[in-house]
Amino acid sequence: MTTAASGLAALHGSYRRDERRRAATLAAAVLLLAGICLLDLATGPSALSLADAVRALAAGPSGSDRMAATILWQIRLPATVMAVLVGASLGIAGLQMQTILDNPLASPFTLGFSAAAGFGAALVIMFGAALPVAGWLLAPASAFVMTLLACGLIYVVARLRGTGPEILVLGGIAVLFLFQALQLLLQYMASPEVLQQIVFWLFGSLLKASWTSIGVLAAIMTVVLPILARDVWRLTALRLGEAHARSLGIAVTGLRRRTLICVALLTAGAVAFVGTIGFVGLAAPHVARALVGEDQRVLMPLAGLVGAVVLVGASVLAKAVSPGAVVPVGIVTAIIGVPMLFALVLRRGSGAA
Amino acid sequence: MAALELVGVTVARGRRTVVTGVTAVVAAGSITALVGPNGAGKSTLLGAVAGVLPCRGTIAMGGEPLRPHEVAYMPQSMAVRASLTVLEIVLLGRIERLGWRVATEDLSRAGDALRALGLDELAHSRVDALSGGQQQLALLAQRLVRRPRLLLLDEPTSALDLARQLQVLDRLADYARDSGAVVVVALHDLSLAARYAATLLLMKDGTLVASGSAGAVLTPAAIRRAYGVEVEVLKTSLGHPAIAPLRACPGAGG
């Protein structure tokens, strides 16, 4: 059977070639991210050239040029690193939300997580002054807790009625309306000054980044990503639909619950520190999928990388648009996200993808 | 070659009992066809035996309960919307073994399964761009690559043209014979069932009403009782019964 043997050899060859091509795409995304991060570090209200920025970066946080060291290590680098982590978190959270809800329109915020975070922040901005906790920690902590509470509510619904996508979406919509109403109630009751603070918090902005918040988000990712990584093949198989996944011996209910909690943690970590940044979590998975297909071994890291590239890119753009006052990056991502998604949909429509 | 033993298998969906007390011994090494009218409980029985639906009664092979990796079950065909390639779909059949790097052996097994079903040309095509019949073949290849001791297929030929139907059933017969597995296939086409299955199980209203060879099960009287239709049972030149429908019986329970 030489034809069978040669056919098999050809199959091995083409599969390994495909694997190499996808690995090369990942490597290219890493390089692109590195380049765009450098660009981000070199732009900002204070004139620091790319060469200055690289020099300050190389000199370390206690470099001889105190001014450059402070700007780079205390202001710009935290914002850039936070943009990478938040973009990656939202990209991966969006991908897995689309996977477990079996819905290409899902994003990390589909199930009301951002409304819950916003309510949590608004709550302590209004009433938190009396609490004996540092103010900078209070809003993120409250936003984080409320996001997990929203996830808990959905989890209870799933526990009672099953984890089918329809049940999860219905539960999520209920949670979304609940927290949105509560948040509006607080805004209605708030004084003008407090209202302004709440609205400012709701705009996603990287100016809130600090080394502490980076540490917290990095810790969350260190816990969550290995859990998702262990499930790469199961999550890939879930895309075949629940019945087929089940018949492959996958415990679909447990997989959905576990993944939902991972998504909530990633989203909570991202939203708590920088506010609501839309569109990254919706668009990044689609871009990654169009590039490498649905094998989650490659798709998951690439969704994270694309999310990071989009958010850092948006940060560069935000600083370029208005060099003096930095536009909140959440607004920029939403605006540049729309043409990006349109381009993608049109490309698919013409059958190229 | 261990047979599949079912004793008093009863399945409820919600409050309704859909399958009642099915007891049967299903031989290994050849195809067994599960036939009966719509709503007879064929799919429910297959799901219960596969372990996807909870049931009462005992299900065993060679006196031992089945382990999940020994069973491959294909539910009735549903469109797949994932943009996975055919090869990736088939590889997922070996999900228990897949690691960060796909082993050469897994690729070879997948390649063999693709070849057996004539899918080699489509290995790198995205499955959401294929026809329903091609999707069905890809999903069948995924089940075969698991090398199960028990293969349960719910209407695997429903979307296929005649040549593909015969090809699939030939491959299933080969698989049953070569591996000594139990292969149960739910089929609507009684002539096709008679041509390929050594044993037929006829269900109606959730119970097993007849079992045995095609000649014994597919009599005009039995078909009239089960389906409420009048048929003529002819004989093909290969010696298998062939069912020629005449008319529906007015008033007969369908």
In short:
Chain A is mainly α and about 350 residues long. Chain A contains 14 helices and no strands. In chain B, the strands form three sheets. Chain B has a six-stranded mixed sheet with strand order 6-7-8-3-9-10, with helices on both faces. Chain B has a four-stranded antiparallel sheet with strand order 2-1-4-5, with helices on one face. In chain B, strands 11-12 form a two-stranded antiparallel ribbon.
Can you put this structure into words, describing what you see?
The complex is a heterodimer of chains A (353) and B (254). With 353 residues, chain A is mostly helical. Chain A has 14 helices and no strands. Chain A has helices at residues 2-42, 50-59, 66-101, 113-127, 135-161, 165-189, 192-202, 211-230, 232-238, 242-247, 252-274, 280-292, 296-321, 329-349. The model of chain A has no long low-confidence stretch (mean pLDDT 86). A six-stranded mixed sheet of chain B has the order 6-7-8-3-9-10, with helices on both faces. In chain B, strands 2-1-4-5 form a four-stranded antiparallel sheet, covered by helices on one side. Chain B has one domain (4-248): P-loop containing nucleotide triphosphate hydrolases (Rossmann fold, 3-Layer(aba) Sandwich). Chain B has 254 residues and is an alpha/beta fold. The radius of gyration of chain B is 19 Å and the shape is globular. In chain B, helix 3 (104-116) packs across helix 4. Chain B starts with a strand and ends in a 6-residue tail after the last strand. The longest helix of chain B has 18 residues, at 162-179. The interface between A and B is medium-sized, with 29 and 40 residues.
